Amino acid sequence: MAGNTLTGLIPTIYTALDVVSREQTGFIPAVARDAKADAAAKDQTVRAPVAPAATTEDIVPGPSAPNTGDQNIGGVDVKITKSKMAPVKWNGEEQLALGPAGTYNTILADQFKQAFRALSNEVDADLAALFLNSSRAVGVPKDTPFSIKDDLTDAALARQILTDNGAPTTDMRMVLGGEAMASIRGKQSVLFKANEAGTDQLLREGVIGRIMGFNLHESFSIKRTAKSTAAGYKVNGAKKAGDIIVAISAGTGGIAAGTAVKFDGDDNQYMVVAATSSTITISVPGLRQDLADQTAVTVLSEFVPNMAFDRGAFLLASRTPAMPEGGDTADDVMNVTDPVSGITFQVALYRQYRQVRYEVGLAWGVAAVAPRHSAIIMG
After folding, report:
1. How far is the C-alpha of 336 from the C-alpha of 11, rounded, in Å?
2. pLDDT mean across residues, the chain
């Protein structure tokens, strides 16, 4: 019977995968991948090296070259933190009941589609949750970006942040939520005309379009942040440009990670990555200017964190779930690769007592590697 072996189900599985690969999980194809991290065991730490900023020295002629140039190479830890599967199960009576209608393979394809979709959506949501690891933000909360016809200022300001931070500009990505993408489609329609945009890539591939050097992606995992009631906070002690930890005097409401803050006299909007009752930690590269003692702090919340970043700013490590040496009780196992995102899923078949059970599995982990190479476009 078709469905008792995975070989016979290859057309069904790939039919399902072709549909899911076009779902709006734009972070998955937008971020970087690392083969070493992909191969890690669950909860095993893989360290991605990060070189520090370089310093300059005066050239002083002499009999020998100076013995300088030592650096402390930093790093970001990446782990495979999740190993999950989505099950699909059928017994003989259920298959027999559908036999005359000829709908078994159609229903099975839909079940595989939902399994791939569930795993892809969870991976995409984990990547979207890294938004607070972005250097700074542009835009205004609840003000949908790209809502003025033929005005791409939001993209230009995001690119300015990345350029100021020294981010590479050869592979930049922009992942937008539904509202921002609706504005793109409704107000910036020139991007969707192949004769004017110069390419039909947005119509044929996972990339929706390209503006200001950014490849555009869409993700429904981008959600509006929670409302903050924080008020009355001030800087406690003068701070210097480049500082990331800012002491604050007592206020009300509490400042939470994932909000953004502004300081009086400074137009920059900084992402808060951690906070206590007495300090806030902002994302690197830190403050853009000095702050005086008792500078007022404004907390920004209830914004949609659309993201613009260099591909290498975020990392996705994913692989198929590990099987023991010699295999387990699965009768058949095959891997299928999503042609758009590059994710490889594992499909396993288990023959049980008068029923068959399929598992679609994936193991993955995510990390923010270079926060200075990411910016938020508030919406």
Report:
1. 11
2. 86
C-alpha distances (whole Å) from 203 to each of 194, 219, 225, 239, 363 are 8, 17, 31, 49, 31
Neighbours of 85 (CB within 10 A): 19
In whole angstroms, how far apart are CA 293 and each of 239, 246, 248, 266, 275?
8, 11, 9, 14, 19
- Write down the pTM of the prediction: 0.86
**Domain ranges in the chain?**
7-24+31-49+75-128+313-367, 130-224+306-312+374-378, 245-301
Q: Which residue has the tokens 């931070």?
A: 165
CB 315 within 8 A of CB 34: yes
Contact status, residue 363 vs residue 124, Cβ threshold 8 Å? no
Give residue-wise pLDDT tens across range 14-53: 778 777 766 678 899 899 887 666 667 788 777 666 666 6
| Crossing angle of helices 10-20 and 104-128, rounded to 10° | 40
